Amino acid sequence: MNSPPNLIIAGVNKAGSTSLFSYLSAHPQVCSSAVKETCYFLPIRYGKPIAPLSEYLLNFDNQAGRPVVMEATPGYFYGGKPLALALNAVAPDARVILLFRNPVSRLISFFRFMQSMLLLDESLTLEEYIEECKGRSVTELRVQENNPYFGVEGGFYSNYLMDWFEVFGDRLKIIFFEDVKGNPHEVLRDVSTWLEIDPDFYTRFDFRAENRTSAFRSRNIHMSAIAINKHFEKGFRRFPIAKKLVKSVYSLLNLSSPRKEVSPGTRALLEEMYRDSNDSLKEMLRHHGVENWPDWLRDIRE
Hints:
With about 300 residues, the protein is an alpha/beta fold. The protein has a single domain (about 5-215, about 255-300), classed as 3-Layer(aba) Sandwich (Rossmann fold). About 45% of the residues lie in helices and about 10% in strands. The chain has helices at about 15-25, 40-45, 55, 80-90, 105-115, 125-135, 140, 160-170, 175-180, 185-195, 220-230, 235-240, 240-255, 265-275, 275-285, 295-300, and strands at about 5-10, 30, 70, 95-100, 170-175. The protein has a 5-stranded parallel β-sheet with strand order 2-3-1-4-5, with helices on both faces. Helix 4 (about 80-90) runs parallel beside helix 8 (about 160-170).
């Protein structure tokens, strides 16, 4: 029988989890799940039971000789302590990685991603979306069907982080999106050392960002692309060259010009909205010895 994973990338959405998962999946000492997001523990976030453990373990074949067994479901982070405790019970030796990104940029990316997945109306503006999110109560946001409107709440990282520190302690690692994007060699070598696998694998590794959100021309072609990607994800994970070819064809057929830039006024309002939460996040990270902050944390009230 397969063993449960001992590495979980548990959050957050639109903060580089797909890129990190892909980079680690390429390492010969890492067995990655058949699909990136198994979502096995996600029902706990919404107060629902999880499936039998045997179903979860089917995601982790080809473990032989690989000391790291990994999955990545960034929605786990927002399940708080109940989800963290359940994960720890199933995988008591697991290490957990959390990725954080400037919450303003993350919100914008999440909004555009929800539109690209056809879960939000394409004509909805960012400003209208923000008001829609604010209009949802905490109770409403605990309903899975309302996840497309979790964009604003998803940036208040300090509301959720302490639960993960309390459950996983030194087995929890914080990484910033800005570092994964700007200096992936250093990040992956550091993560490899933490996982006790060969960091030299990444010395000449070809780092390319994954899961970028782009605008599209034809809704029908885009719907077909979503279905194809979902149906063939296991195969694409095993044969990345095939996925690259399909993405190239899709780009030629259906990508359009970038969406309208966010106005300085809207960005300033969002920065103010997250200011206190970012301040609290900074103190939590400092308390746990994490001080290599990106600019969006370093500049807070200093």
